[in-house]
Specification:
Number of helices: 7
Shape: globular
CATH topology of the domain at 11-82 and 192-232: Rossmann fold
Strand order of the largest sheet: 6-7-8-3-9
Strand content: 15-25%
Number of strands: 9
CATH architecture of the domain at 11-82 and 192-232: 3-Layer(aba) Sandwich
Largest sheet: 5 strands, parallel
Radius of gyration: 18 Å
CATH class of the domain at 11-82 and 192-232: Alpha Beta
Structural class: alpha/beta
CATH superfamily of the domain at 11-82 and 192-232: P-loop containing nucleotide triphosphate hydrolases
Distance between the termini: 57 Å
């Protein structure tokens, strides 16, 4: 059974319809639709260049769509700031301040998202990704795997219904991957949703799969004139 999320957000469905996106003069995908219910998970699949990261950025409101719309509970999104407050987006860019300690980095994001720092919740986020012994270390001293675990711990410092994860298993060892899988399972049990792009493990049980290759344009008509001129 899905429970109400702890914190300030009530789970709602997230969906997109008729989505298309053009990057660098090329239509990456077109006619794409998806839907994720509270407690659900969606795994993005497809070859390199099929638009997995582009779609995640579009979902996060960082890349504009060429066509189509995103919606919460079937209501089209018209407030970018409100939309951003309902999601957490983790990529290979860790957004870590090197001079800050592990705790200070997480405290910064908690303060930004919640307006205050809750020490108990902060400690739980640190412990969830096995960072307790590193809590006072400056981030510049962390390994690539430790930095990525710190980035993932941001998911836990302030509630948000939607997690967007781009190759979240990169640089993680087996125990850290298990920590991520547990965090995702707990998030979904509270009604949270997860959309993940991953070539390897998906870190989700019972999630649906979206094959972006199905929505890849197949003919040159989908290229802009600027792109065609660049190829001559």
């Amino acid at each position: 059974m899905v429970r109400r999320m702890d914190g300030d957000f009530t789970p709602r469905s997230f969906s997109g319809s008729g989505l298309a996106c053009r990057r660098g003069g090329r239509l990456v995908f077109t006619g794409l639709a998806f839907g994720v219910a509270p407690g659900g998970a969606l795994v993005l699949r497809g070859p390199n260049g099929s638009g997995k990261t582009t779609l995640l950025r579009l979902m996060a409101g960082l890349t504009p769509s060429t066509a189509g719309a995103l919606a919460w509970d079937n209501v089209p999104i018209d407030d970018p700031e409100a939309h951003a407050a309902h999601l957490r987006f983790i990529t290979h860019l860790d957004a870590i301040k090197p001079a800050f300690t592990v705790t200070e980095n997480l405290g910064f994001w908690m303060s930004l998202w919640r307006g205050r720092v809750d020490d108990a919740n902060l400690a739980r986020a640190v412990a969830a990704f096995d960072l307790t012994r590193l809590a006072a270390f400056p981030a510049r001293l962390l390994s690539a795997g430790q930095r990525h675990r710190l980035a993932l711990a941001r998911l836990l410092v302030a509630p948000a219904p939607l997690w967007l994860l781009d190759e979240p298993g990169n640089a993680l060892d087996a125990p850290s991957r298990e920590s991520l899988a547990r965090a995702i399972a707990a998030h979904r049990a509270q009604g949270g949703m997860v959309i993940v792009a991953s070539h390897e493990a998906t870190f989700v049980d019972g999630g649906e799969t979206l094959d972006l290759g199905v929505f890849t344009p197949k003919t040159a008509v989908h290229w802009s004139e600027e792109s065609e001129e660049a190829q001559i």
